[in-house]
Amino acid sequence: MLIYNASTKRGIFFKETMKTYIAKEKDIKRIWYVVDAKDKILGRLAAKVASVLRGKDKVIYSPHQDTGDEVIVINASLIKTTGKKMQQKTYKRYSAYPGGLNIETLERVMAKSPERVIRHAVKGMLPKNKLGAKLLKKLRVYPSEAHPHIAQKPQVLTVK
Predict the structure, then answer these.
(1) Dihedral (C-alpha) 84, 80, 75, 157: value to the nearest 10 degrees?
(2) 89 touches 103 (CB < 8 A)
């Protein structure tokens, strides 16, 4: 920016600095969303849920802050996958004992605890730090339509 001084007949340049908006805790409005996972593709569902948890759809989004909303996923046992992922995709767990590696297919994990599959997919799309752990606590996954969060009046979130 150029400011002209009439008495000295000189122009003085001042550098303007841009202001970065940082959301205050009081400015963040948390909304509860409910997502029906029935017949939805696992990866697309997880990507949308992770985006809402981070708050990327909000104007006040900051990558280092928790500006996201709470998400409830229902009907987790009715998700779909493409190709042969049900038989070929594997999940590994290690018990920290010798020979304690547990490898299970997606089909077997879905039979035991389908909410673990969605939580694992969303966790992979969140930051790998303390912020990611905090965001994951705002995700609630239920295998059927019943959930105990009616009092929060969740809005329906549509996923393609």
Answers:
(1) 140
(2) no
Q: Considering the chain, what is the average pLDDT of its residues?
A: 92
Read off the pTM.
0.85
Interatomic CA distance for residues 119 and 55, integer angstroms: 18
Q: How far apart are CA 20 and CA 61, in angstroms?
A: 11
How confident is the model over 66-91, as pLDDT tens digits?
A: 999 999 999 999 999 999 999 999 99
Output b/e per residue, 17-37; b: 16+ Cβ within 10 A.
Answer: eeeeeebeeeeeeeebbbbbb
* CATH domain 29-156 topology: Ribosomal Protein L13p; Chain: A; (3.90.1180)
Domain borders along the chain are 29-156
Place of tokens 């029935």: 38
What does the DSSP assignment read for 106-157?
HHHHHHH-HHHHHHHHHHTTS-SSHHHHHHHTTEEE-SSS--S-GGG-PEE-
- Per residue in 105-150, pLDDT (tens digit) is 999 999 999 999 999 999 999 999 999 999 999 999 999 999 999 9
